[in-house]
Specification:
It is a single chain. The chain is elongated. The protein starts with a helix and ends in a 7-residue tail after the last strand. It has 2 domains: 138 residues, no CATH class; 70 residues, Alpha-Beta Plaits. The chain contains 8 helices and 4 strands. It has a 4-stranded antiparallel β-sheet with strand order 2-3-1-4, with helices on one face. The chain is 58% helix and 15% strand. By secondary structure, the protein is of the alpha+beta class. It comes from Hominiventricola aquisgranensis. Keywords: Membrane, Transmembrane, Transmembrane helix. InterPro entries: DUF4956 (IPR032531). This is DUF4956 domain-containing protein.
Length: 224
């Protein structure tokens, strides 16, 4: 018997349905479900978005179970394993995920499904606890205050200098991000770091020709 035959035999022996018992399936799905509920709770705890998506959170838990079931099926039969690889390779997910934290939770959920499907429950448990501690510790670290956006609408076409003079009195840093001139109207978007926000907005709003002045906080995803 040559090396090719030995490799072929050992490879095919790795795909015996006798190894996938009802008890193993039940144990895998139960452990995965418990860890999926844990991810569900942690996501709800750490997310601070106003528009919290319960459907997305549910999908995280469901995805762990589905992934674990796929891994179990791939272990049971060589034909199913190759078929799964082929089927999953042509799937394209079009849903855009804008928040990096959502992407991290999505990858966490899929990883737990893979690890539990492979029967490595201890690794899945330790990983989940470690990821949770890591997220909470990093979330508690102090960060600098993010820049604000001052949105100015004025009927004074030459009023930009007056606005920037006022901004310069209050802001440690500022930069004009958008400048739009139209018939009888000046629109400015200024990124700045300032402590006395109310005083700045009040003084800008009191300038000649000023239609409106708004201060907006942003996280890098605001679109004008």
């Amino acid at each position: 018997m040559g090396f090719k035959d030995v490799f072929k035999k050992s490879f095919l022996e790795g795909f015996t349905s006798m190894d996938i018992t009802t008890g193993k399936i039940a144990a895998t799905l139960i452990v995965t479900a418990l860890l999926a509920l844990y991810i569900f709770a942690i996501y709800r705890l750490v997310t601070r978005k106003v528009f919290y998506s319960k459907n997305f959170n549910i999908s995280l838990a469901v995805m762990s179970l589905i992934t674990a079931a796929i891994i179990l099926a791939m272990q049971s039969n060589l034909v199913i394993s190759l078929g799964m690889v082929g089927a999953l390779s042509i799937v394209r997910f079009r849903t855009a995920i804008k928040d990096p934290m959502d992407l991290a939770f999505l990858f966490w959920s899929i990883s737990i499904g893979i690890i539990c499907g492979a029967g490595l429950y201890e690794i899945a448990l330790v990983t989940s606890v470690g990821v949770t501690v890591f997220i909470l510790v990093l979330d508690m670290l102090p960060v600098g205050k993010a820049p604000m956006m001052l949105v100015v609408n004025s009927s004074e076409m030459n009023g930009e200098k007056a606005v920037l003079d006022v901004v310069g009195k209050y802001a440690r840093y500022y930069k004009v991000k958008s400048r739009n001139l139209s018939k009888g109207r000046l629109d400015l978007v200024i990124e700045l770091k300032v402590k006395e926000e109310s005083a700045l907005v009040s003084e800008v709003a009191a300038l000649d020709g000023m239609i409106s002045a708004s201060m907006i906080s942003h996280d890098g995803e605001v679109t004008f």
